[in-house]
Amino acid sequence: MNPQTTVNIRSYLTQRAIFIVLIVLVIGIAIADPGFLAFSTLRDILQQSSTRLIIALGAAFILITGGVDLSAGRVVGLTAVISASMLQMEEYANRFFPDLPQLWVGYPILIGIIAGLIVGLINGIVVAKLHVPPFIATLGMMVGIYGINSIYFDTEPNQSQPIGGLRDDFTMWGSGYFDLGGGYTIPYIVLIAIFVALICWVIFNKTRLGKNMYAIGGNVQAAHVSGIKVARNLVIIYAISGALYGLAGVLEAARTGGATNNYGNMYELDAIAACVVGGVSTAGGIGTVPGVMAGVLIFGVINYGLTFIGVSPYWQLIIKGLIIVAAVAFDVRKYVAKK
Question: Cys staple from 234: which of 73, 121, 128, 181, with CB 3.0 to 4.6 Å?
């Protein structure tokens, strides 16, 4: 075979390795149980992965700049509790706010998203203006937000009781669906996640903010020299990520029909893992929306598919861990080769 052809094939396979892994996973699980290929299974995987995708997209913004955000999961928990606490049915016995009138569903949703945005804005200011390393800044925020959420969750008369009895006009966004006919449906939450992914793709590829994001992650000193206002761009990027976490928290409450202060625990690690597996470089400057989507789907297939065929959850963790380590090792190898 022509050496150039070999190089081209190798490059093609390398660039699409994530999608090949996803296809192999689906085929392997389908061989073990052909029922896995049912449309309902795909729908369930997409529904469960939708909020994870939104969180991962938020994490991707920051990873591409060369940073990391450990507060994502706790922001999800905070915004889930905030939105759920204001959207309980009037006749529900254990209302968080017994005297709160029935609000238009959009108000608590918007409040949840804004709460996430504010947290992201604070993260961005601490990182960009105070020059605190992203790992430390977001670690501190992770702990602080959990404390704030727990205090709010423990207020009278709730006293740390799980928030339930959510209104139908809210939960429909997480469990409702669009009827395609012929017995086929697609959940609203999947359509929302796809719409968010499209917006992120536009930001990544068609806006000045996206170009600046990749430049900052590629070489922050060169970005400064080229006239990019690094601090301002970082604050905006962290704020966008926070808003995405806020949206994911609201949708998670709607999907599950309730909320507690422990919602979102460790979601940030799943999001970062999905990004890395999807080709987002831990060194910054590299990452795509389709790659993030594929990374989230891989973990969705692992979580749902391996449970579907009866694989122990402990083995699932081992498999996920091996995939994450392999993806990071591959990323580091590419980075070292370029240097």
Answer: 128
Q: For residue 252, what are its two tokens?
A: 């998670």
Question: What integer pLDDT is reported at residue 4 of this predicted model?
Answer: 59
Residue by residue, DSSP assigns 285-298 as S---HHHHHHHHHH
3-state secondary structure of 181: strand
User: What integer pLDDT is reported at residue 325 of this predicted model?
Assistant: 79
Residue 66 phi/psi, 5° resolution? 95, 10
Burial of 198 (0-12, 13-18, 19+ CB in 10 A): exposed
Look-up of token digits 């990004």: 275
Which helix (H) or strand (E) element contains residue 179? strand 177-181
What backbone phi and psi angles, to 5 degrees, belong to 309?
-100, 10
Tell me whether residue 247 is exposed, middle or buried, using C-beta atoms within 10 angstroms of its C-beta: 0 to 12, 13 to 18, 19 or more.
buried
Q: Which residues of the chain have pLDDT under 70?
A: 1-18, 331-339
Q: Which residues pair with 179 in a beta bridge?
A: 185
Q: What is the dihedral of CA 150, 156, 162, 167, to 10 degrees?
A: -120
Position 216 scores a pLDDT of 96
pLDDT value of residue 190: 96
- Rounded to whole angstroms, the Cα distance separating 275 from 202 reads 18
Task: Look at residue 298 in the predicted model and tell me its pLDDT.
Answer: 87
Q: 129-134, long-range: CB within 8 Å, 24+ apart, which pairs?
A: 129/231, 129/235, 134/62, 134/67, 134/68, 134/69
By C-alpha distance, which of 186, 252, 255, 257 is closest to 40? 186
Amino acid identity of residue 59, one-letter, is A
- CA atoms in the 13 A half-sphere facing the CB of 250: 28
* CB contact set of 126 (below 8 Å; sequence gap of 6+): 132, 137, 141
Report the interhelical angle of 168-175 vs 230-256 (nearest 10°).
110
Q: What is the pTM of this model?
A: 0.92
